[in-house]
Amino acid sequence: MFYVVLLAMVAAFLALRLYSVLGKRTGHEQQPLPRAAEDRPAAIPVTARTIDATPEVREPANRNIEPRAEAGLRSIVAGEQGFDVNQFLGGAQAAYRMTLEAFWSGDEKALAELAEPDVAHAFGEAIAARREAGETLENRLVSIERAVIADASLEGREARITVRFDADIAAVTRDADGTVIAGSLTDAVETHDVWTFARTLKSRDPNWRLADTDEE
C-alpha cells in the first residue's frame, strides 16, 4: 500500500514538472511559417508624382494691326512714347462717327476741326452741291464692325496712320419735297472705308485729323 502511494506521488510530481515546462515560452518555439506569395496581400502600386509643366504663354498678335503697319507704328512710338495703339483706335472710331455725322448734317464747322483743310474743303463742296440740288441725308451709322490699322509711317515728325473701317450704315436721301429718292433706313449697307489720319508728333495739339479718304 505504501509503494502505491509513493508511485502516485512520483507521477504527480513528474506531471507538475512537465506542465511547468510546456506552459512557458523559452524563446526557442517554432516561428510562424512565411506565407506563400498568393496568400500575401497585394502590394499597392506607387505612382510617381509628376509636376505639370507650365505651358509657354505667348502673347497673341494684335489682330487690329496689319503686318505692314508694324514698322511704322514702332517708329511713331519711338518718336512719341506716350502713343498707345488701343487708345488711338478708340479715338479713330469716335472721329469716324463724328466726321460722318457732321458731313451728313452739313456741319462744316465741325468738319474743319476734324479734318485737314483740303479734306474739309472737299466735304464742303459735296455739301454745297447737295444743298443746291435740294437734297438732304438721313443717314445713320448702325455699327462699326471692325477697325484695323492697315498702314503707318513717320517722316520727320509727321505721322500718318491708315485705318480700315468695316461698318454698317443705313442711308436715305430725300429730295426737296422730302421724297425718298435713294436708300432705306431699314436696310443697313456694309461699308468699307479707308481713312488716313495725320498728326505732328510732340506738338501741343494732341488730335489726329483726317488727311485722306478712300473706299474698298
Short précis:
By secondary structure, the chain is of the alpha+beta class.
Shape: globular
Order of helices and strands: HHHHHEEEEE
Our Rg estimate from Cα atoms comes to 48 Å
Helix share bin: 25-40%
**Percent strand:** 25-35%
Q: Detail the poorly predicted runs.
A: 2-7, 13-60
Helix count, DSSP H or I runs of 4 or more residues: 5
The beta-strand count equals 5
Cα distance, first to last residue? 142 Å
Arithmetic mean of pLDDT: 80
Helix- and strand-based class?
A: alpha+beta
Largest sheet: 5 strands, antiparallel
Give an overview in words:
The protein has 216 residues and is an alpha+beta fold. The chain has helices at 2-22, 67-79, 85-105, 108-114, 117-132, and strands at residues 136-137, 140-155, 158-174, 180-200, 209-215. The N and C termini lie far apart (142 Å).
Key features of this structure:
globular, 5-stranded antiparallel sheet, 216 residues, 29% strand, 36% helix, 5 strands, alpha+beta, disordered N terminus
Topology:
Blueprint: H1 2-22, H2 67-79, H3 85-105, H4 108-114, H5 117-132, E1 136-137, E2 140-155, E3 158-174, E4 180-200, E5 209-215
Antiparallel strand pairs: 1-3, 2-3, 3-4, 4-5
Helix pairs in contact: 3-4, 4-5
